[in-house]
Design goal:
The chain has 5 helices and 8 strands. The chain is an alpha/beta fold. It folds into 2 domains: 51 residues, RNA-binding S4 domain (Structural Genomics Hypothetical 15.5 Kd Protein In mrcA-pckA Intergenic Region, Chain A, Roll); 68 residues, NAD(P)-binding Rossmann-like Domain (Rossmann fold, 3-Layer(aba) Sandwich). Helix 1 packs across helix 2.
Length: 129
C-alpha cells in the first residue's frame, strides 16, 4: 500500500507533524531512494528508503528566525532569564534554551499549542490563557 510522503515521515518518527514533514520536503531536505522528492503528497510504498538531509533544529520556524538574529547581532543569553511573549509552539523558547538561557517564561494567550518537550523542561515556565 502506498502512502503520502509527509505521512510516512511522521509514521517513521522523522518529523513531528505533517506540517513539519511538508516543510522538510519543500525545503529539499528529504531524499527518497537517494533522489530529492519535491512534493510532500507524492505516494510511496511503506518500505521505501527515506533520508532526512538536515533535521529541524527547533520545534518551529520561530526558532530559525531567532537564530538569524543571534548570528546577525551576536546576541548572548547564556545564564539569563528570558521572556517569550506570544510563545505559540515555542520556537523562540527552544532557541533561547539552546543558546544557554537559564530560564524562559513562555507567555501566550492561546492554550495547548506549546510543544510538549519544552513544556516538560524544568527551565521553562508556561503561562497560557
Amino acid at each position: 500500500m502506498k502512502r503520502r510522503l509527509d505521512e510516512l515521515l511522521v509514521a517513521r518518527g522523522l518529523a513531528e507533524s505533517r506540517s513539519a514533514a511538508q516543510r522538510l520536503v519543500l525545503e529539499g531536505k528529504v531524499r527518497v531512494q537517494d533522489v530529492p522528492s519535491p512534493k510532500p503528497g507524492n505516494a510511496y510504498s511503506e518500505g521505501i528508503g527515506i533520508e532526512i538531509l538536515a533535521p529541524e533544529r527547533f520545534v518551529s520556524r520561530g526558532g530559525e528566525k531567532l537564530e538569524g538574529a543571534f548570528q546577525a547581532f551576536g546576541l548572548n543569553v547564556e545564564g539569563l532569564s528570558c521572556l517569550d511573549v506570544g510563545a505559540s509552539t515555542g520556537g523562540f523558547t527552544d532557541c533561547l534554551l539552546q543558546h544557554g538561557a537559564a530560564r524562559v517564561i513562555a507567555l501566550d494567550v492561546g492554550h495547548d499549542q506549546f510543544h510538549p518537550r519544552l513544556r516538560a523542561d524544568s527551565r521553562v515556565t508556561v503561562i497560557e490563557k
